[in-house]
Write a structure and sequence with these properties.
The complex is a heterodimer of chains A (about 210) and B (about 425). Chain A has about 210 residues and is α/β, with parallel strands linked by helices. Chain A has eight helices and eleven strands. The model of chain A has no long low-confidence stretch (mean pLDDT about 90). Chain B is about 40% helix and about 20% strand. Chain B is elongated and about 95 Å long. Chain B starts with 12 loop residues before the first helix and ends with a helix. In chain B, strand 15 and strand 16 form a beta hairpin. Chain B has an eight-stranded mixed beta sheet with strand order 1-5-6-11-10-9-7-8, sandwiched between helices. Chain B has a five-stranded mixed beta sheet with strand order 13-12-14-15-16, covered by helices on one side. In chain B, helix 7 runs antiparallel to helix 8. Chain B has three domains: about 210 residues, 2-Layer Sandwich (BirA Bifunctional Protein, domain 2), CATH 3.30.930.10; about 80 residues, no CATH class; about 90 residues, Rossmann fold (3-Layer(aba) Sandwich), CATH 3.40.50. Classes of the chains: A alpha/beta (about 210), B alpha+beta (about 425). The interface between A and B is medium-sized, with 27 and 25 residues.
């Protein structure tokens, strides 16, 4: 049978993921991420690892091109795909928050919210029953309130340093985020043993022994 | 002009040939098992589908308005129309009713990975039988159909629609918490469950069960055994006993190796009432089939009766077979006949007919160039000349055949081809 395929979110999350797998006893080359390769066959572990953009991890896993994926909860919430989310890997910890200038006045019209996460933002404000205008941006979200493009931003906040340096404050924390292990729904059934072995090994590293309560 | 519609597609000859092989196999299996095929209309009334909870969201159906202002839909599913048939035209017919179908269903948004708006489904419905044997029959029939079309290692994941509700009742889960917990359990989201139950009141036993459920699936007998040892009510255990009996029967048929059990298997179709199941192939990550028991569906038409059925997702099946190259295709050889002299036109047609009767695809065409031969995938060319007949293998041998005995021409041609092959 084919090797089990794991999609990892390129960048910091993948680096941590490789570290995690190595800690769990998997023989991944230590500096595999230094090359520009996007696909790695690890024959000794019967694994194939592919590096994709964070937002694409849930897509690769839902379509079953990858059996497993490692990706931030922020991406999962935004993409809202049909997957099994099986493990909190407890790194890449941050939160979704609303932020803006310290002296925000209530606007006469709909509140304008700039974000990289338009779908999550839409669902969030809909659940609160608040009508908003959502402006999708692709980066430097902090600029939106400073330039007057939007009065509020919805973004991930880790230490709050970027906000602070730009004179912004958190209005409201929405929820905690971290990296998650996700599994394709069919693979979970058709390759249960191989996948469970991986989940257990990673669980052991992340949570230690106390988890089996 | 942009004449392309997203989510629908043309089916071209190469694909259609493969489809037909699959269609034929499936139809043969269904008919041999006494499931007679019906074709229901493409257009159905919106009312048929409206109000069936969890079937298809209203917004995901294609709506058409007829000349009287009535709203119709392109059928989003094929089980409802058959339930309608059973409760109307076959109301007084002896039970059980056995029907099969092979048609397309239309949905504007398709949750399946191959995001087609028109997808082909082939399935059976067994109406008017509530027995365990009919559940067994469905599972075995699905396994057999998948194997026959070329699924090397079919896998059927079995669940029970009521199990989760029974378990919730046993654990005294409050009404307001059920939906979220059901969603988390269906997603096997252990982290989510852990966080969620932190804030709600639960017994220690209930917590334990809820945290175990996300990873409790797989080997049917093991899973049943573990569930039986959980603090669950007699009623829940009765549902489990039924499943266990089904698994035992499947074992007798040596089919248990193809079965997994997931107590938290939840179907998108809200109409299922008991057994639910999904068909997969080892190594392929898309759904190939789904089915289950829907004992309340015909109630809508004033006739409540037990029913069970399944549907194969033909596009996913094709995708799987294409990847694994498990097509069992019988490729016919193709001939092209050309002639030099107008007086040979009749001979060309007669010879073509002879070859067709012998099982070859044959066309008569005089101006074929290489591009045309390629496109039509012609294997052999026959060129009728005044004194002889030229037989040419595509990109290969050439030979001349005497044409004085007309009756023996076909025989001589086929002999030569056999010699070449």
């Amino acid at each position: 049978m084919d090797n089990l395929c794991i999609a990892m979110a390129k960048g910091r999350l993948a680096k941590e993921a490789v570290k995690l797998f190595r800690q769990a006893g998997y023989d991944l080359p230590e500096n595999m991420l230094k090359s520009r390769k996007l696909i790695f066959e690890i024959e000794s572990e019967k694994l194939e690892i592919i590096l994709v953009k964070p937002a694409d991890v849930p897509i690769y896993v839902e379509y079953g091109t990858a059996d497993l994926g490692i990706v931030g909860k922020d991406t999962l919430l935004e993409e809202n795909r049909n997957l099994y989310e099986v493990l909190d890997l407890k790194y890449g910890v941050c939160e979704f928050a609303l932020a803006g200038l310290p002296d925000r006045k209530d606007t006469l019209l709909e509140r304008k919210v700039a974000t990289k996460y338009p779908d999550f933002t839409r669902r969030y404000f809909r659940s609160r029953g608040e009508p908003v205008e959502i402006i999708k941006l692709n980066g430097s979200i902090e600029l939106a309130p400073l330039t007057g493009l939007a009065d509020t931003i919805l973004d991930i906040v880790e230490t709050g340093r970027t906000l602070k340096e730009n004179g912004l404050v958190v209005y409201e924390s929405i929820r905690d985020l971290s990296a998650r292990l996700v599994v394709n729904k069919v693979s979970m059934k058709t390759r249960q043993q191989e996948i469970e072995t991986i989940i257990e090994a990673l669980d052991q590293v992340v949570n230690g022994d106390d988890e089996n309560a | 002009m942009n004449a392309f519609v997203e989510g629908v597609r043309d089916i071209l000859p190469a694909e259609l040939r493969k489809r037909r092989t699959i269609y034929q196999t499936i139809r043969e299996v269904f008919e041999a098992n006494a499931y007679r095929e019906v074709i229901t209309p493409t257009l159905e009334s919106l009312e048929l589908y409206a109000g069936v909870e969890g079937l298809v969201d209203k917004s995901e159906m294609f709506k058409v308005v007829d000349d009287k202002g009535q709203i119709l839909v392109l059928r989003p599913d094929l089980t409802m129309p058959i339930a309608r048939l059973a409760a109307s035209r076959f109301q007084d017919s002896p039970r059980p009713l056995k029907f099969s179908y092979l048609s397309s269903a239309f949905q504007s948004k398709n949750s399946q990975s191959l995001s087609l708006k028109e997808k082909t489904q082939a399935g059976v419905e067994l109406i008017g039988s509530a027995s365990l044997e009919s559940d067994l029959e469905m599972i075995l029939l699905l396994l057999k159909t998948m194997k026959k079309v070329g699924v090397a290692e079919p896998l059927i994941d079995i669940g029970h629609a009521d199990l989760i509700n029974e378990i919730f009742a046993d654990l005294k889960i409050a009404e307001g918490e059920k939906n979220e917990l059901r969603r988390l359990l269906a997603a096997k989201n252990k982290i989510g469950i852990k966080n969620y139950i932190k804030d709600i009141e639960l017994t220690e036993d209930a917590e334990k069960v809820l945290l175990r459920l996300p990873s409790l699936f797989g080997d049917p007998k093991k899973v049943v055994k573990e569930l039986e040892n959980m603090p669950l009510s007699a009623e829940t255990k009765k549902a489990l006993k039924n499943l266990e009996e089904l698994f035992n029967k499947l074992e007798v048929f040596e089919a248990l190796k193809h079965i997994t059990f997931d107590p938290m298997l939840i179907s998108r179709h809200g109409y299922y009432t008991g057994l639910i199941f999904k068909g997969y192939a080892k190594g392929y990550s898309n759904l190939l089939a789904s089915g289950g028991r829907y004992d309340n569906l015909t109630e809508k038409f004033g006739l409540e009766e037990a029913a069970v059925g399944f549907a194969l997702e033909i596009e996913n099946l094709l995708d799987y077979l294409n990847r694994t190259e498990n097509f069992s295709e019988n490729l016919q050889k193709r001939f092209l006949i050309a002639y030099q002299d107008q007086s040979d036109l009749k001979l060309a047609y007669e010879l073509a007919e002879d070859l067709r009767n012998a099982g070859f695809v044959t066309e008569v065409y005089n101006n074929a160039d290489k591009e045309y031969l390629d496109f039509q995938q012609v294997d052999f060319e026959i060129y009728l000349k005044s004194d002889m007949l030229e037989l040419k293998q595509y990109g290969g041998e050439i030979t001349e055949i005497e044409r004085n005995q007309k009756e023996a021409l076909e025989y001589l041609i086929l002999n030569k081809i056999e010699e070449w092959e």
